[in-house]
Amino acid sequence: MGAAAGLGAAIGFERQWIGRPAGTRTHLIVALASATFMLVSTQFVFFQTYGKDDLVIVDTSRIAASVVSGVGFLGAGVLFRTGIGIQGITTAASLWLAAAIGLAAGGGMYELAVAATGTALFALIVLRRLKGRRDTCTRGESSSCSRMTARRGKP
């Protein structure tokens, strides 16, 4: 649960840093809740009292599947329509990923959870900076654009 909380908070911190509505606390709670659901779904059978000859069939994927659906509602809450555009889609996607990271950490797949967090932070931080440079050049607002456009073959 600690891994889920820490990794979810890392993604949320980036979202909060750039002023998005769902930040550190929201992502931490989503990841922690997902990890808790995963632990409950995989461990609850051990806390039940069954007879020696009772046949027990457990489908642990049912709770995890419900987490995916439930987080969709949270993601919808951070989407805003502005004219013909939509804002908040990256934050909604990062909430969905925080849920997946929580499920992975709750299932004991720490390497997967860390890898997903690292990839998400790369996408959120590095790729946003690259996109910002491209957008600035498209609007002609930067002197460094001549170097970028020259590499792409544009005047």
Q: What do the pLDDT scores average to? A: 80
- How many extended strands? 2
Radius of gyration: 21 Å
Structural class label: mainly alpha
Task: Map the helices and strands.
Layout (H helix, E strand, L loop, with lengths): L1 H16 L6 H20 L17 H17 L2 E3 L2 E3 L1 H18 L3 H30 L5 H7 L4
Antiparallel strand pairs: 1-2
Helix pairs in contact: 1-2, 1-4, 1-5, 2-3, 2-4, 3-4, 4-5, 5-6
Protein name: Mg(2+) transport ATPase protein C
Subcellular location: Cell membrane
Keywords: Cell membrane, Membrane, Transmembrane, Transmembrane helix
Task: Write a structural description.
By secondary structure, this protein is mainly alpha-helical. The protein has one domain (2-127). 70% of the residues lie in helices and 4% in strands. The protein has six helices and two strands. The chain has helices at 2-17, 24-43, 61-77, 89-106, 110-139, 145-151; strands spanning 80-82, 85-87. The chain has a two-stranded antiparallel ribbon. Strand 1 and strand 2 form a beta hairpin. Helix 1 runs antiparallel to helix 2 and helix 5 (110-139) packs across helix 6 (145-151). The longest helix has 30 residues, at 110-139. Mean pLDDT is 80; it is low at 144-152. This is Mg(2+) transport ATPase protein C. Belongs to the MgtC/SapB family.
